[in-house]
Amino acid sequence: MGKIGSGRGCVWAIVMLVLLLASEIGVAPASASASVVEQKRTCESKSHRFKGTCLSDKNCGSVCTTEGFHGGKCRGFRKRCFCTRPC
C-alpha cells in the first residue's frame, strides 16, 4: 500500500514541475519585447533591370537604387538580384 501512495506523490511532483517549467518558458523580459518592436521589416522584390547572374551585392544595390529601392543583394540558388526597402 505504501508503494501506491508514493507513486502518486511522485507523479504529482512531476506534473507540478512540468507546469512550473512551462510557465517560465512563456515569460519574456520587457527589454526583449521592446527590441522586437524597434526592428524594422525589410521587403524584397526581384530586380526588373538587373540582367544575368548576380555576383556582386554592390552592383545589385546600384541597379536597385535606380529602380527606387534602398539597396539590393544577390540571393537564391540561381543568384538573382533582389532589391530591398523598408516595408
TrEMBL record:
BP GO terms, sorted: defense response
Domain of life of the source: Eukaryota
Gene Ontology CC annotation, any one: extracellular region
Alphabetized UniProt keyword annotations: Disulfide bond, Secreted, Signal
CDD domains cross-referenced by the UniProt entry: Knot1
Database matches in InterPro entries: Defensin_plant, Knottins, Scorpion_toxin-like_sf
UniProt signal peptide: 1-32
Residues of the Knottins-like domain: 42-87
Compartment(s) of residence: Secreted
Protein name: Knottins-like domain-containing protein
Source species: Salvia splendens
Organism classification: Eukaryota, Viridiplantae, Streptophyta, Embryophyta, Tracheophyta
